[in-house]
């Protein structure tokens, strides 16, 4: 069964932990969840996103962390 990265990320965003996701999607293993997170991180760790994030942080309407 093919499970999309976005489906795993949506479950994580909804508050499910890895055990709950594995129960929900029994064809997965822990490494699949970790690989999904690493894949997504690689996609958003792009120079365009980094520049946009820097722009947001420099805007006075957004608080700095």
Account of the protein in words:
The protein has helices at 5-13, 18-24, 30-44, 47-58. With 65 residues, the chain is mostly helical. It has one domain (5-58). The longest helix is centred in the middle third of the chain and has 15 residues, at 30-44. The radius of gyration is 16 Å and the shape is elongated. The relative contact order is 0.12. The mean pLDDT is 83.
Strand tally, please? Answer: 0
Query: SSE order, as H and E?
Result: HHHH
Rg measurement, Å: 16 Å
Global outline: elongated
Strand content: under 5%
Tally of structural domains:
1
Low-confidence stretches: none
Largest beta-sheet details: none
Mean pLDDT: 83
Termini gap: 41 Å
- The helix count comes to 4
Tell me the structural class: mainly alpha
Helix content: 55-70%
Q: Could you outline the blueprint of secondary structure elements for this entry?
A:
Layout: H1 5-13, H2 18-24, H3 30-44, H4 47-58
Helix pairs in contact: 1-3
Write a concise keyword list for the protein shown above.
mainly alpha; single chain; 65 residues
Brief rundown of the structure:
The protein has 65 residues and is mainly α.
């Amino acid at each position: 069964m093919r499970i999309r990265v976005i489906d795993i990320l949506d479950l994580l965003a909804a508050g499910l932990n890895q055990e709950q996701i594995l129960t929900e999607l029994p064809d997965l293993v822990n490494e699949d969840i970790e690989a999904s997170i690493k894949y997504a991180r690689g996609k958003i760790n792009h120079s365009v996103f980094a520049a946009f994030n820097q722009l947001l942080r420099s805007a006075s309407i957004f608080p700095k962390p």
